[in-house]
Amino acid sequence: MSGEDFSQLSMLDLFRAELDSQSQALTAGLLALERDPVAAVHLEACMRAAHSLKGAARIIDLTPAVQVAHEMEECFVAAQRGQVRLNHAHIDALLKGVDLLAVIATEPGPGEEETQRRIASFAQALQQAGSSASGSGVNGEVRTAPPVAPESQHSSEAPLAPAQEPAAGSAPALSQTPGSPASDRMVRVTAESLNRLLGLAGESLMSARRLRPFNDGLLRLRRVQTDLAKSFDALRAAMPAVTTDVRALQALAEAQLKLGESQAILAQRLDELDAVDRRATDLANRLYDETLASRMRPFDDGVRHFSRTVRDIGRALGKKVRLEIVGGSTSIDRDILEELDAPLGHLLRNAVDHGLEPPEERRAAGKAEEGLIKLEARHNAGLLQIIVADDGRGIDLDALRRATSGRGLTTAETAQSLSEAELLEFLFLPGFSMKGSVSDISGRGVGLDAVQAMARQVRGQVTVSSELGAGTRFQLQLPLTLSVIRALLVEIDGEPYAFPLTGITRTLMLPRERIEILEGRPHFRFEERQVGLVTAHEVLGRDEPQSDSVDLAVVVVGEGGEAYGLVVDRFLGERDLVVRPLDPRLAKVKDISAAALMEDGSPVLILDVDDLIRSMEKLASTGRLKTLERVVASVGQKRRKRVLVVDDSLTVRELERKLLDHHGYEVEVAVDGIDGWNAVRSDPFDLVVTDIDMPRMDGIELVTLIKKDSGLRNLPVMIVSYKDREEDRRRGLDAGADYYLTKGSFHDETLIHAVADLIGEPWG
């Protein structure tokens, strides 16, 4: 983009760009000067930044900004000359000056009268700070500026600094100043355009890779030609040495000649195709890498402003605190960096307010008065790790146990038995806080749940660890980019599906004999807990699996009590996939988050792990896991006993179904006597539970028909009815019912005990 691009921007836009860059330099320098007030390098950097802003403001005739920048510049010059020693009051005032410059540059601004009032207040704050500073000049004051600042004795106005690149979705970026290196210029490109460009680059990469299978096919053709040539040679050798069939010899020689020519042409074209393949793949890879890199921003771009945030919160709470940013040059997807802003703000506020002790408490514990918070970013195993750690008091687990039981989240006995990791999970519950009072900084129970929600939204996770007296550490593990994911490909019913690696807890080959039946549902032992098993075929509504292998391919997803093992047909390996969102007209597709193209150009669906967990929970709760029952049966497990519930009341019918299913019985339902009679004649059941008053055919008639049928007379029947008179009970038992229970009095244990008395345990 050439220098003419500046004609598209107003002078005020250019000043805002300069202000954005120089404000960051000023803030960083001021925070450094607060720790070392006489650091020459930081004084010089701050003075130059203020001087550049003054010059830029004068160019566009923004007089209020000139006044503020001049006041700041004079203060820095006085500090350089030793006339003033910067203290906390100076830093507070100068930081407010940075904020005031931003207000002045807004459009519309606060108004001329209000602006002058704020400038006067700022100048007064600087004077008061100077009068209390040691080592100041006469009367300890710093000169104030006239309404329009005179030329400074320093160098002439510096040129406009490069504009900072905005976050994704924000206003377009501004070009850099003329004379900058061409490679550093910034262009006006929207985040949406970058997303489309990345998608096209991904398709280009996939298309380039399709040349390789084509090339491999031609190689196979060359091998066939080679075999054909050998066959011709064998044919010639098999012919009689002396033959009178000249035409046959000529035809054979001509065929061999044509074959030789075709082999030469094929070899030449293969060499050319191989070269084209290498160039196309290399070009597509470079295009994709460059496009992907254009979406990345240094970690420091999105978090440097937290240095001042932490400093201001610490000052408000009377704590000395320093934020150390590690891995500031780590490249992060701009969308993820934008999403990180609020969660990191919550974590840092909590670290200052909850984590760090007051200076006197730190001294008593043998620590430095100044607390340290580390904000670190690094790449690890193809993922992005963000760590927020403090050297404060740590989390008191006993206090956390009292807080969880005190808020009714668990009983005191259960809280005592929870492990440290399980106990710390309570911190992420919405509305949970260990702080007894509410302030303008924390105590409302919001923050950590938002951190966890953000991590899950981008297919990541967050963990916390703490050591009492040594500090607390939060770790976010996120994908490097939202545009490309590292995924595990699996096969389900002959088709590939992709699991984002960040959503997988573990993959394993599970021997069938390790499957156990608990409360009627298949489980297996995993990391000292029982994890439920569900087949991907049932979740996705596919045909039944046909595999007879000894071991099952299982993907473990979820954590703690929400963990499930999803049985797939087989693992296909890991891939890097370019995420392509589904057409908006499809709305939300159940259990699917997006799509991608594989190397051969075929599509693959990316599974939504959170949605899958909800689907598995629903399947498990409704007792519809038929496929795994057959898997269990195939390894010698006992058959699950079947119960038919017949009742015209939906509420009663579902209550009985859920109750029986929860205790391990397989349950089918019928809506009246006719429906029930048809059911018992078509499918085998171990027990029938029926109401009396029903349309079309009542329960007494149903019992009578069952007991008169030669093939069904031994089928146990239980009547559950609202009728509790003795004559009603006698009528039912006389019809052949094996048990009579009234709805008005039965409860969970009564019904289950009655069923167990009639047919025994669920499996037998």
How would you describe this structure to a colleague?
The strands form five sheets. A six-stranded mixed beta sheet has the order 10-14-15-13-12-11, sandwiched between helices. 46% of the residues lie in helices and 18% in strands. It folds into five domains: 3-164, HPT domain (Four Helix Bundle (Hemerythrin (Met), subunit A), Up-down Bundle); 192-294, Up-down Bundle (Methane Monooxygenase Hydroxylase, Chain G, domain 1); 299-479, Heat Shock Protein 90 (2-Layer Sandwich); 484-633, OB fold (Dihydrolipoamide Acetyltransferase, E2P); 642-759, Response regulator (Rossmann fold, 3-Layer(aba) Sandwich). It is an alpha/beta fold and 764 residues long. Mean pLDDT is 79; it is low at 1-7 and 134-183. The protein is flat. β8 and β9 (495-500) form a beta hairpin.
Record keyword descriptors for this entry:
764 residues; alpha/beta; Four Helix Bundle (Hemerythrin (Met), subunit A); Methane Monooxygenase Hydroxylase, Chain G, domain 1; Heat Shock Protein 90; 5 domains; six-stranded mixed sheet; five-stranded mixed sheet; 24 helices; 46% helix; flat; disordered N terminus
